[in-house]
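Q: What does the assembly look like in three dimensions?
Context provided by user:
Components: four
Sequences:
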Amino acid sequence: MTLRVTRRQFFKLGAAGMATSSMAMMGFAPEPAVASIRHFKLTGAKITRSNCTYCSVGCGVLLYSRGDAAINNVDDIYHVEGDPDHPVSRGSLCPKGAGLLDYIQSDSRLRYPQVREAGSDEWKRIDWDEALERIARHMKDDRDANFVADDDDGNTVNHWISTGMLAASASTNETAYLTHKVVRSLGMVAFDNQARV
Amino acid sequence: MTNHWVDIRNADLIIAMGGNPAEAHPVGFRWVMEAKEKNDARLVVVDPRFNRTAAVADYYAEIRTGTDIAFLGGLISYLIENGLFHQDYVRAYTDASLIVSPEFGFDDGLFSGYDADNGEYDKSSWQYEYDDEGHARRDETLQHPRCVFQMMRQHYSRYTLELVSSVCGTPRDKIQRVWDMIAETAVPDRTMTFLYALGWTQHSIGSQIIRTAAIVQLLLGNMGMRGGGVNALRGHSNIQGLTDLGLLSNLLPGYLTLPRSGEQEYDQYILERARPPLVPDEVSYWRYYERFHVSLMKAWFGDAAQEENDWRFDWLPKMGVDLYDILHTFERMHQGEVNGYICQGFNPLAAFPHKAKTTESLSRLKYLVVIDPLRTETAEFWKNHGEYHDVDPAAIDTEVFRLPTTAFAEEDGTIVNSSRWLQWFWAAAPPPGESRSDTAIMAGIFLRLQRLYREEGGPFPEPILNLHWPYRRPDEPSPEELAREYNGWALEDVFDEERNLVVRAGEQVEDFGMLRADGSTACGCWLFAGCWTEGGNQMVRRDNSDPYGTGQTLGWAWSWPANRRILYNRASARPDGTPWAARKAVVWWNGQRWVGNDVPDFPPTSAPGDGQAPFIMNQTGRGQIFARDRMNEGPFPEHYEPFETPIANNPLHPDNPLAKHNPGARVFEQDRENFGTFEEFPHAATSYRLTEHFHYWTMHNRLNAIAQPEKFVEIGESLAEELGIAKGDRVRVSSKRGFIEAVAVVTKRIRPLQVAGQTVHQVGIPLHWGFLGETKKSYLTNTLTPSVGDGNTQTPEFKSFLVRVEKL
Amino acid sequence: MSLAKSDPALRRYSVWNRLNHWLVAISFVLLVLSGLPFFHPFFWPLTALFGGPTMTRILHPYIGLFMSLMFLFMAIAFFKESLIRRRDIQWLKQIRDVLANRDEKLPPVGKNNAGQKLVYWIMLGCIVLLLITGLLIWQPYFADAVPITLRRLASLGHAFVAFLAIITLIIHVYSGIWVKGSFQAMVRGRVSWAWARHHHGLWYEEEREKARKHRAISRRHDTPTNRQESP
Amino acid sequence: MRGDQINLQNVIARSATQVPSPQERSGGVDRVTKLIDVSRCIGCKACQVACAEWNDLRDEVGECVGEYDNPLDLTPDTWQVMRFDEYEDEQGNLEWLIRKDNCMHCAEPGCLEACPAPGAIVQYANGIVDFNSEHCIGCGYCVSGCPFDVPRISKKDHKAYKCTLCSDRVFHGLEPACVKSCPTGSIMFGTREDMFDLAETRTNFLKSRGFDNAGVYNPEGVDGTHVIYVLQHADRPGLYSHLPEDPRISPLVDAWKGVTKPLASMAIGLAALTGFFHYVTAGPKEYGEEDEAAVREDEAREREREERP
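A: Here is the predicted structure of the complete assembly.
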């Protein structure tokens, strides 16, 4: 989409920049150093098309990441800006969208499963298998104990209302669909999402 | 949205009411600015606050929160009495001509059939008058005293300018000015659009406010038109998708509904929903309900769902009550009737009304599972955060799991924006640490449960053991597989009536028209059928060309239903099939079929002569002015005061206490005790979003924290003067349910209102900030809000409640 | 203190006077060298002498503070002898004779002539102003606190006063070269009786008087060691 | 490739530089301009956030002082701020005037004129005035020089910072970050000509909506700016958080930077020269034989007086 300098060129630029600028420090500044412009931070970035998942305008965003998904590299998103092709947003973003980078990289992002035991005052790190096993066990015990096959009027209801779930209105349709499928198979009806709040 | 974001630019008048698009949807709001500049449109804001939208509006009128029905009801009366409505449209495309049952009545704020003891209506009388074929009687002249038009006229005749002004607190000249501007769009070639959001929904009468707006649009002939419509801007990025996919207590994907406990028989269940036309020969599309239902059951239970076992009707849970919504569930949780709760990317402690109750409720759980990319207040509800959240961890026995999940930037998939576009996006980087996708987490939990039931057995294991799980990686179904599944595919070759092959076994269906009720098709969400066809993934399409210059961009992503961009667009053409106005044309009849710049929302070959009406999802084929029994508080919207109102009674029915608040609302006893009175809490408060933040996420982002770092409340200059509060002072805002402290923003933008002969001060309370993240620690706004919901949807009344402001 | 053979007979400046003067002189020159680059790009390469532009910007004010302090001592030491007298006016009126070396026509002067006194007062004024204006524009310490207009005024003032001081300096230095023996005087502190008589007649008389008294005292308890001999 | 626009010599003015930069190769280089239509601004701060994100700036998290403004003022880490003003006209009509405040990129930049460090401030042929921190010495003269009070000196590195009009993006054929993000089209970017055409359209639109005094803010005092405003009340810029009525480079700065310095420098040289030639003509000032003789007489006289019993 924009200037594509090869990496070598880019290093040259950098080196030249350093040399000339340190000369400039001595007061004997050659023209180029003095006029040198800023390095363009998107040079060589990988661009991924995405959508902002804050509000329901659904603006198109471009995610710029360092790294080319090579096996020895952990790609890292370092810049986000609007997708000019998107018919609604046409490249613009609101302050939330413009700040998406700090959400992706927020210090508040969780990194591993944790549990807070009853009455405890702290989180304890656990591994995924333990987390999922314990959760499944909880759910099964509760369902086994409280599943309602027939209500007081003798109607078959086959529902489980002693465990509820809130689904995420920022999750994908695919997540939502699978979640719904699973939830109903368990007979859950105390089920909701942000549509109400 | 009935229309879509870009279509707003086709409007001649934009009414921002019950929403603050510049604040909450700045980028979508661009098209309002385009309409102003390119279409010479006017922007009018009717809101309690002179907000960011008002900053660029052509006209602003203040209004008391929660009184929109009065404002619009008065408008309806004004339009009718002055003949300022689209006569032909109303006669042909609305139910104005249908005759209402003689049993139906309305007296001093209550409709017929009210049971004061249970606070419920018997809605049997809320019907049309039917002939022997079960078809509604009609009077095309609209003169019959009981035709919907005359009933409506009579109903709103009470909403005079004087009354509206005294209810809303809006000066008469301003009301008149707004009404006049709206009336100008009654002509065929001018359209007005309503932009609303949670400023309308979050009231005990929210749904009815929106119904009133819909009636106005039908009167003006603005439905199905370019630049018209009733447009819900919606909140979260995929709130539309989750609603479409039915992730609500009583829904199934595609607005199919779960059976109620009373509906024991499958046939009865279908009959109830496969609605026949109430006017001869209308489309009444829901008549195909069974096709969608059976296809869903095949998608979920595969071969286990067969005709002989009613497609496993019994495997669907049935509703014991109308709704197990959040208020209902947290009430039961508070009673100790709920043991487990799973929050997938949801922060109820911050997001639900009456925080104290929420905290107590969560504390009574045995286990809580929080699946989120971020730290949330909910996940740490057991932790003591000092004055902001003062609890004793030792006294809370809830076991809490916190599972890290991917953020949008780290996953593939689609979200549905409020234009109903399904847009596919791609992952750009791996998630931090051990985070997993929500699908992997749900699959992980489910497969373990399935194993446990296989090994240990347990009550009613069949749906769990037989859930159709065809995924290549059972522990992490791919978005592609899931998308193909909700699009639907043929299990056997499908033929039409003339035995023409429609779709081959194993192929993806092209649209919901291909679905069948005989088990030969499977479809996870009929509404999304067509999003992933044999032609591939339609949701990745990126052709943004706009050949007609209408902004429809049919080649961009995929829009439900059937890639249609403007709903009810048949109504953009006259009954004879020619557009009402060239500059508003969407679809038209070319002699053989319906064509246009959008996908026709109509049977493509139904000739104008056949006389089918445009609102094909309705049994009447017409826009419903009269809601029949579909609403809990009445077929015609009526103004009722918020449950916490700054005035003594409902000015419309001063002598009927039953009609003070929404008679159809559901209120739990303990919550009723927690309502405050205006004697004790004199200030009318409303809560809302700021553009710099998104709910409780962005406070975790440094950039947004910098832009709006600390909690504040907005107070009008006159109230501030009264209370001796200066800009920047710290104030305490209390309601019956608790208090918060924040910085005072003293502003000219909130003015005192004269309501029913008294002065009412309104206080604005942004909902953002909490005790986590990068911003200054703060109290949660929902400490203050009341736990009562809309009569139909149970959406909490976040927008109108009472507080007392004090200087600290 | 020790005397070299070559040192003339008559003492004009004490050790402290001389050290003080040269500390001021050196820091003044450094200030000129570090200040000129900011005065005009023409002098920019001078920043190299101070380890680059930024270092120059950082050092300049500190040198300034030091010089101001040193100058204060000197100002006190030379205060009395720098007071302008009536005869100085006459001397200034005859400045042409001064420049043309027609010294015989000049009225006798005391320890300092009017020119030297003027240098004293001009420098005193300049340095006070430079100090004040300098502080007002001193980044990063005080500048931010100063109202923008005042800051602009100060920048202008600092430049202008500096110019004045530099001109004065040039005159001062040249006089040192021009008037033979005076450079020596500020280096070793001593001048010959003849030099004194020629350039500072009145001061010469005072000194002779002092010398006479001195000899009288020394004769009473005769100790050859401290006998003072003139050439 | 658009990257060709990177031209390390494409500088029309450099701070502290007497000789002109290469000017010939300006063919086809358009002057760019950023238009800020205040009448379309909703104060959402998208531009503010986009600016910080693009320039890798993260200012301190401040506090609320009772208004929407935040950060309250420009800082070395905040190169633009939104300034909110509630204005009630004579009829009591309320207007919420929200102005994006940042470097105006003057055609005659006071900062550049005041800067003593060669090349620390440059003006590119496209009109952008850019700070080159590498050469900034932190003297703060640019602050004195700016008629809009824009540059800020960092407490971290004591260098001056301000909006660069995203010179890096512009040189690569992109619009500045703030412009791209703007949701309402309040901020527009393009060639100077196009922006003035657009400004006219927007002004006429405002006039058609009853803002008779709508107009463009492009102060002549600094020979125009490369950031221009469309104002509803162009007759009273002061309404918009004290936007200067008639900004110009302070006469003080002019006096200080203008003629004074070359003249003074010359005078200094002259003074030194004068001295030299005086020495050549008049020669040194020395005492003569007569002084020595006189001294000897005095001594003789004294001696005989003292030796007399």
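Follow-up: Chain B has a mean pLDDT of 97.
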